[in-house]
Amino acid sequence: MELYELSIQTAHKLLKQKKISSLELTRAVLERIQSVEPKVQAYITVAADAAMEQAEFADQAISRGNMTGLTGIPLAIKDLICTRGLRTTCASKILENFIPPYDATVIEKLKEAGAVIVGKANMDEFAMGSSTENSGIQLTRNPWDLKRIPGGSSGGSAAAVAAGMCLGALGSDTGGSIRQPASHCGVVGMKPTYGRVSRYGLVAFASSLDQIGPMAKDVTDCAVLMKTIAGYDEKDSTSVPLEVPDYTDFLKNGLKKITVGIPKEYHAAEGIDPEVAAAVKNAVGVIENLGAECVEVSLPHTKHCVAVYYVIAPSEAGSNLARYDGVRYGSRNKDTRNLIEMYRNTRARGFGMEVQRRIILGTYALSAGYYDAYYKKASQVRTLILEDFKKAFETCDVILSPVAPTPAFTIGEMIEDPLTMYLSDIFTISANLAGIPGISVPCGFSSDGLPIGLQIMGKHFNEETIFQTAYNFEQATDFHKKKPGL
Amino acid sequence: MEFEPVIGLEVHAQLKTKTKIFCGCSASFGAPPNTHTCPVCLGMPGVLPVLNKKVVEYALRMASATNCGIAHESRWARKNYFYPDLPKGYQISQYELPIAVNGHIDIEVNGDGKTIGITRIHMEEDAGKLTHDPGRPVSMVDFNRAGVPLIEIVSEPDIRSPREAGAYLRQLRAIVRYLGICDGNLEEGSFRCDANVSVRPEGAETFGTRTEIKNLNSFKHVENALEYEINRQIETLMSGDPVVQETRLWDAVKSRTTPMRGKEEAHDYRYFPDPDLLPLVIDDEWIREVKNTLPELPTPKKERFVREYELSSGDAEILTASRELADYFEECFREFPNPRRIGNWMIGPLLGLLNAAGTGIESSPVSPHHLARLLQLIDEGVISGKIAKTVFEEMAASGKPPDRIVEEKGLVQVTDTSAIESVVLKVLSRFPGEVEAYRSGKDKLLGFFVGQVMKETKGRANPKILNDILKDRLR
Ligand SMILES: [Zn+2]
User: Fold this and answer.
1) Which entry of A7, A21, A78, A120 is annotated as an active-site residue?
2) Quick one: CA dihedral A449, A450, A456, A462, positive or negative?
3) What is the DSSP code (8-state) at residue A113?
C-alpha cells in the first residue's frame, strides 16, 4: 500500500510507532498530487513548501512525544476557509489574490493539533453550486470518471480525498455541499449541527445554514477530524457552548438500541435513479440486520424545502457578498469614471454567472413589498420543517435517506438547467434548514461504477449516534474499500 | 390661513464605550487613520461580529432615563446599501424589534412644560469616514469610526416649533451627558440630529407631507433650518403647490435647505434579521440593576435646585445643565451656604470665564473650594465685592487660593475709620466747588466723592464706613 492511500488512523499509528515520518507521508501526498492533479484538478493552491515545513515541525513534536490524532497528517482545506498567509480565493475572480491576515478558528485548531495543510481545494464559487462547475478558477473532475463532476460545492475536497491527494479534508455545507460531493466521490462527509463548529473565518455564503465539516476516507477518520474542529468559539456568536464528546468512543457500540426512521415522503420524491433507490434500500436492510429497529416517519413539509432554501440562502448571500466592492481588498475594476461604475464593473467582472444569479434572487426576495411574501414566509415554513424533524425524532434516533437522487452527472450536462440542479439538493437541504447534523457514507455503486452515498441524519448535537450508525454500516460493507482507478 | 408645524427628531448619539460594538478595537476619537481597525471592522471575508455588552448597558441606561419600555428580546438587523465608508455593504442595526420603545421626556419652553414622546431607541454601528482630496480625483476612507456604537433616538411628531425642537435636543443631550454615555458634541458629530418636518392648517387632524432635513450640526442650525423649512413649506402651499416628500440638506452658509439629489435618496435597505447574531435577551434583573444605578437626571435635579436652594427656574436650569456644573454648585454650597450668591458668581464670572476659554467646568482653574472661600472673604469684610472681582480674575489666571492673592497684592479692605477719614478730608479739600454744590442740594455728587476716595485707596476702603464718614463730613 502506498503512503498516500493510508487512512488517518493508520497513518497516526505508523507515525506514533515511528515507522514513517510526517515528512515521508507529506512528500508521498505531494508526489501523488503531482501525478494525478493534472487529471483531477482538485486544488486551487498547493502549498508544498509550507506543508513540508509543517511536516518537519510535526515530526519534531512526535519525537518529543507531543502528539494528537492529527499530528503530521496532510489535509486539504476548502478554499472558502481563511488561512493566514495562504491565498483564499473562494474560487472567485473577485478574491483571486486575497491572502487573509488571519486563520479561521478551525484552522487554528488544526494547526494546534499539528496537522499539515497541503493546499486549498477547488469548489463552486462562494460555495454556490452542486458540481464545482461554477468555480471561477478551474474545473475539477470526478476521480471515478473524469468525464463527470465531483459534486459540489466542496467538490475539490471530496475529489482530493478520493484520489489520495490528502488523507482528509475540510469542506463546508450550506445545502448539501459536503454530503453530496462525498456521495459522488465515494468518501465520508459530515455536516455537523448548526453551531457545533465555529464559522469564524469561513467566508459566508448563507450564514444561518453554513457549517464547516470533515471529509475523509472512512467514518473513523471523519470522527477524528470532527472531534478536533468542533466546539464553542467566542468569536462566533452562533456557536453553542456544549461539551464535545470523543466521537470515536461511540463507534464500536452496536445498533441494537438504535431506531432508524425512513421518511415516507422520500419514497415519493421524483427523479430518483433506480440504482440509487436500490442501494439505499439495501443499506436499510443491512442496518436492520445489524439489530436496529426501522420505523416509518413523516416529514410532511419536505416538498417545500427547495423553495424555502432558494429564498433564504440567496437573501443572506446577497447581503454577505456586498462586501466585495473593490474598495478594501480583492480585485477592483480601474476602468471606471465614478463610484457606481466601479461597483458595477468590479462585481460584474469579479462574480460568475451563478453568483450573480443568486445575488439577484436574494436582492429581489428582500425588496420592499416582497419581504413578507418571500423571506418572511420562507422563515415561517423553515420553522415548520424544523418541527417536522423534532416530531420525527420522537420516534427514532436517526433518519436514513439518499444523499443525491442520482450518481454524479457528466460535466456540462446540467449547466444550462440550474433549476434541475437546484432540485437535486432535495435530500440534503432540509438538514441545513433544520440545523441538524447529517453524514454521507458510501453505500453502493451504479452499473457505471459510480459511488452512491447513504445519508444518515440525527438530532441536534447528536453527531455521535450518526457516527455510530455509519461506522457499523461501514464495517458491515466493503464500499469504502474500493478506490478509483486513476 | 394659519399653519402649524409638526416636527419629529431622529438623534444619533455616539456611545463612549472603550471598544467598538462588534470587535475589540478602540472606539476613541482622533487616532491616525485606519489605526483602530481589525479584520472584523474592516469587513474582511469570513469574520463575524461579537456584541459588546457595554453597548447594551448604555442603551438600557438611556432607555430607562427616557421612560421607555424595554424589550426582553430584541433583534439585530442588516441595513443593506453600498457606500465606500461601509465595509460590509450593510450596517448592523435594529429594525423590527428595537431594544426600547414608547418613552417620553419633559421639556420646558418659556416656562411652560411639555412632554415629548419617544417612539423608539435602537443600537447600531457607525460607518467610517470619507475625505475627498480636492487636488486629486481620489477619495480616502478612514475606518477608525466604523463599528463605533451608536444609539438612535426617534421622537414622536410631538414638537410644534423650532424652539421646542431646540429644547428637546438640549434636554436629550443633558440626559446622555448625565448618564455618561455620550459626549453630546454636535459640532464634532458625537451627537447628530435629523429633523422630519411638515406643516398643516391649524386644527387639522392629519399630517402634511414631510421633508427630512440633514446636516444639522449645531443647535442653532437645527432651529434656523426648521424655521426656514417651515416658512418654505407654508409659502409652497400658499402658492398652491404641493410639498414634495424628500430629503433636504441645510446649507448654513446660504441659510437655506436644498433637496438632496434623487439618486442618493432612492434606497431600499432590504432589512432582514442578521443571522450572525443571536436575538438579544434582556432579563428583569438586568433592567432593575440599570434602573437602580441611574444618576439623578437633569429635570429632577433642576426641580430639587428650585425647591431646596430657592433658585429661580432659569438659574436652576443653567446650573443643572451638566452633572459636573451641578456638582460644582453643591460643593460650593457645602462650604458657603448661600445658594443665590453662589449662583450669581457661577452664572456670571465663572461661566463667562469658561465660555471665553471654551472649556467645561471640569477643567475650571477656580475650584469650588476656592470660590466658596472668596465669597467667605467678602462676608468676613476682608475684601469688598468689587475687589473680589479682581481677586477672581487672578484666581482664574493663576489658580492660586484667594487668601494668598489678597495677601500678596495687599488687597485687604481698609476698615480703619481714622485712615478712611484722613483720605476723605484730603479729597474734600481738593474739590471745594463740588463740596459747595453738594451742600446746596446736588446729592448726586456723593458718588463722585466715593469714586475719588476709592481711587486714592485703590478700591480698598470699606464702602459702608466710607459712606457714613462722607455723609457726616459733607453735612
Ligand atoms: Zn475592529
Assistant:
1) A78
2) positive
3) T
Yes or no: say if A236 and A114 are a contact pair by the CB < 8 Å rule: no
Cell reading at B118: 419617544
Tell me how far apart the alpha carbons of residues A129 and A415 are, in angstroms, rounded to a whole number.
10
Predicted model pTM:
0.91
How far, in whole angstroms, is CA A273 from its chain's centroid?
23
Q: Do B45 and A319 touch (CB under 8 A)?
A: no
Q: CB of A205 within 8 A of CB of A128?
A: yes
Nearest to B375 by CA among B351, B343, B420: B343
Q: Does residue B376 contact residue B406 with C-beta atoms inside 8 Å?
A: no
Per-residue model confidence as pLDDT tens digits over A329-377:
999 988 888 899 999 999 999 999 999 999 999 999 999 889 999 999 9
Task: For residue range B11-33, list pLDDT tens digits in order.
Answer: 999 999 999 999 999 999 999 99
Q: Is A482 among the catalytic positions?
A: no
| C-beta neighbour count of B171 within 10 angstroms | 18
Residue A24 burial (C-beta neighbours within 10 Å; 0-12, 13-18, 19+) = middle
Query: Which residue type is seen at B244?
Result: V
Among candidates A235, A327, A328 on the partner chain, residue whose Cβ is nearest the Cβ of B48: A235
Domains belonging to chain B, first-starting first, are 3-289 (no CATH), 296-408 (no CATH), 417-473 (1.10.10.410)
B44:A367 CB<8 A: no
B149-155, strands of its sheet edge to edge? B69-70, B100-109, B112-125, B149-155, B3-14, B191-201, B211-216, B247-251, B256-259
Domains of chain A: residue spans and CATH: 3-256+469-481 (3.90.1300.10)
Strand pairing category for B191-201 and B211-216:
antiparallel
C-alpha to C-alpha distance for B338 and B350, rounded to whole angstroms: 16
- Ligand 1 midpoint to CA A474 (Å): 47
